[in-house]
Amino acid sequence: MAHIYDKDGTAGSQTKGGPPLSNRRFRAQSKKPFSKRSIFLITLIVSFVLTIQTFLFIEHNIREPLMDVARIRVKQIATDAINQAIANQVANSAEMEELVDRWTNESGDITGLSLKYGEHMKISSQIVDIVNGALDANVHLVERIPIGQAFDSAILSSFGPKIPLTFESAGAPQVDVGTRREDAGINMLLITVFVRITAEVMIYIPFATEPELVTTEIPISYILVKGDVPMYYFDANGNPMGNDGAAGMVPPLALPNANPAGAAASAGEEASSVSETPEP
């Protein structure tokens, strides 16, 4: 029987009809399975990579639906704040009557008006406080978006767990009190006193949106200023009108002379010619 030596120089035995025992031990060691520690580390790395990929996929595809929701919420916040201000001003309509000073003539007709600066500032301050309170009440908004929105599919958009997201909003109101004039008839003027409320709101968390501007005008007082109606006037088509029933009849107008010096000279010549005429 031939002797077989191992790598370390020792003689190895050989069984009948089979490979040496040392070779069988080497093959058994090469097929040893991974340890639990190695399996755990590999599983952890693969799970981490898949989680990062899934997170990036969802964040990239769900951003557009979130932007749409944010735009709607921004406009809703601004509109609700302005509506609260309108409701408050309607309840305090009696205070609005003190906003305008009126001057009248002997007949009681309004000849002039002006806005009281003190009342103007008071009303503006009240409206700003109301709008700010409404905006502060909606600073934190929680929206739940189905994860199926990330797949951009009409079928899967409503499936999956809903991701809770918190929107942080910020806003600033601006209030102006002004007047607007409109023609209300012949020599009559309708003056509207209004409050213009502008609310600027934006979402800055989790991402910044473009500021949304919502502007509303609240009429708070109407004043009709009437003047004397002239005897003759013209309608919108340029036709002469009158209040004495003689429609279309315009009295003759004495036009001024374009050359008063020449007129005076001609008048003097006529007077001298009359004085020089001999008596019969």
From TrEMBL:
Keywords: Membrane, Transmembrane, Transmembrane helix. The chain crosses the membrane at residues 39-58. The keyword Transmembrane helix applies. Residues 1-29, 260-280 are annotated as: Disordered. The keyword Transmembrane applies. Pfam families: Spore_YunB (PF09560). InterPro entries: Sporulation_prot_YunB. Coiled coil: none annotated. This is Sporulation protein YunB. It comes from Paenibacillus antri. The gene is yunB.
